[in-house]
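Please fill in the sequence for the structure shown.

STRUCTURE ENCODING:
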């Protein structure tokens, strides 16, 4: 599948071209985003682009702070109270009001750790400092690997052929080899950036 983003009448348009993996013939071209592309964009940017990304990032950061402070406020002061709050201690005489309270208290306590983990890792999409922090923790303190600079190194001795996308494709499979599950080649947005190729 080759995705291509373009513009028509000033509006961004997405095209998905389905290619035969053996001879490269275009089987079908679909205009517009798929349902899941829209859902992903809604989840990450509220369909507002960069401002939406910031809104989602700061809302998630606020949510993490509320979760952590909630656990701190919830944490019992002494051991007997802690025993009651981390597991169900129901007797045959325990009333439904107490059971309802315990269900809320105990289940929310355990699920809050899962939610904090999900929210913290989600912050990596919005904030570079969080991305670097996660990279540092999971790599055991190794230096953060930056993406290579994608600006083109202009060389007047090279003449770009007309079939540049084909050249990128051939160079990519020559370098990374086969088999691969998926390969995407992306045109730059402007004349400064390089064509990028992603291989899974």
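FILLED IN BY: designer on duty
SEQUENCE:
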């Amino acid at each position: 599948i080759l995705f291509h983003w373009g513009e028509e009448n000033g509006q961004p348009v997405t095209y998905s071209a389905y290619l035969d993996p053996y001879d490269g013939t275009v089987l079908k071209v679909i205009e517009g985003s798929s349902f899941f592309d829209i859902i992903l964009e809604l989840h990450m940017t509220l369909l507002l682009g960069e401002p939406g990304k910031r809104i989602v990032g700061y809302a998630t950061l606020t949510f993490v702070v509320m979760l952590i402070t909630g656990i701190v406020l919830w944490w019992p002061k002494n051991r007997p109270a802690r025993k009651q709050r981390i597991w169900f201690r129901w007797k045959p005489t325990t009333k439904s009001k107490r059971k309802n309270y315990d269900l809320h208290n105990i289940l929310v306590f355990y699920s809050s750790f899962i939610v904090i983990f999900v929210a913290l890792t989600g912050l990596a999409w919005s904030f570079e400092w969080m991305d670097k922090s996660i990279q540092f923790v999971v790599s055991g303190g190794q230096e953060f690997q930056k993406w290579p600079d994608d600006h083109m190194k202009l060389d007047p001795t090279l003449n770009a052929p007309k079939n540049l996308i084909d050249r990128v494709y051939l160079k990519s499979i020559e370098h990374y080899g086969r088999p691969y599950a998926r390969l995407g080649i992306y045109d730059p947005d402007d004349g400064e950036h390089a064509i990028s190729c992603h291989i899974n």
